[in-house]
Design a protein that fits this description.
Layout: H1 2-40, E1 41-47, E2 50-55, E3 61-62
Antiparallel strand pairs: 1-2, 2-3
């Protein structure tokens, strides 16, 4: 009986561990995307209430 419980619990624990690893990897990936996105835009042009940003990769101006 003890072996059966140990096997069942171990199998379920592995699935939860895989889910936790995937979740942590996804969170790290999202954080890395945000960091890279911050380096893409240059916010230096202001005219009235319009805020212009320049794409550093393509050198295009966006509103």
């Amino acid at each position: 009986m003890a072996k059966l419980q140990k096997v069942c619990h171990g199998g379920r624990g592995d699935v939860l561990d895989r889910r936790k690893r995937k979740l942590v990897a996804l969170i790290i990936f999202i954080i890395m995307l945000n960091v890279v996105a911050n380096f893409r835009w240059n916010y230096n042009n202001f005219e009235g209430d319009m805020r212009y940003k320049t794409d550093r990769w393509t050198n295009k101006v966006w509103v």
